[in-house]
Automatic annotation (TrEMBL):
One of its GO terms (biological process) is ammonium homeostasis. Its main location: membrane. This is Ammonium transporter. GO terms for cellular component: plasma membrane. SUPFAM superfamilies: Ammonium transporter. The chain crosses the membrane at residues 21-42, 48-69, 81-97, 117-137, 149-169. One of its GO terms (molecular function) is ammonium channel activity. Residues 8-193 form the Ammonium transporter AmtB-like domain. The keyword Transmembrane applies. Keywords: Membrane, Transmembrane, Transmembrane helix. It is found in: Membrane. The keyword Membrane applies.
Length: 235
């Protein structure tokens, strides 16, 4: 919140800045960036390393947000670029920089059926609150209502598409919980950068969900190949 205040136009003009509810919501978005990065590095770093990562990444994410939104004037009202995309790529970069060889894979480090089901609680909470996440800081009120409507339609169509594709890509027609956990939220992520558009909401969410599910399955295959080998890259 302080860093955003120092970068604000109000501070540049008057030397002071205001802390209110909009600033708190933007600060929550910065926390979401760290959570997304932790999803990439989960189980590969110590708590102290995660704490240092949080301080470091939060500062960088605020600077990136300031450059993208205030300087480049990119339409990213739902923070799809500066939160979701940045958090994912930052996590991949951190994993690449801190990789170690000659580390054996332990069975306890992988996901199990119970952990996948328990993770669905977080997915359900995110699904319910995602329209508010995309629409909270939108102005005027008409834009806020449009963001809520488009996000709900995108997530509803994306959820149905996820279940259909997850069953089709499985040899036995079963649902893959890893697909369900992430791909059901892909519609809300995709529509975050297009919340102002009155149409094409369903098309955007369907295309994004289809690509997300396919990439997810391809990534799982690569991950299984390396994890089942004798050596693994890890932090």
């Amino acid at each position: 919140m302080l860093l955003r205040g120092f970068l604000s136009k109000q501070f540049q003009d008057t030397g002071t800045f205001t802390l209110g509810v909009p600033e708190m919501m933007c600060a929550d978005a910065s926390c979401a960036v760290v959570l997304i990065t932790m999803g990439v590095l989960l189980g590969r770093m110590t708590p102290v390393q995660f704490l240092l990562l949080a301080f470091f990444e939060t500062s960088i994410s605020v600077l990136v947000d300031h450059i993208v939104v205030n300087i480049l004037h990119v339409n990213d009202g739902g923070r799809s670029l500066v939160v979701h995309a940045f958090g994912a790529y930052f996590g991949l970069a951190a994993a690449l920089v801190g990789k170690k060889k000659n580390v054996m894979e332990m069975d306890e480090q992988g996901s199990i059926h119970h952990s996948d089901l328990f993770s669905m609680i977080g997915t359900l909470l995110l699904w319910v609150f995602f329209p508010s996440f995309n629409a909270a800081v939108q102005e005027p009120e008409d834009a806020r209502h449009r963001a809520i409507m488009n996000t709900y339609l995108a997530m509803a169509s994306g959820t149905v598409t996820t279940f259909i594709l997850s069953s089709l890509v499985d040899n036995l027609g079963r649902f893959n919980m890893i697909h369900i956990q992430s791909s059901t939220l892909s519609g809300g992520v995709a529509i975050g950068a297009f919340y102002k558009f009155r149409s094409y909401t369903l098309i955007i969410s369907l295309l994004y969900t289809r690509c997300h599910t396919k990439i997810k399955g391809f990534g799982m295959a690569i991950y299984a190949h390396f994890c089942l080998s004798e050596r693994k890259w890890s932090l």
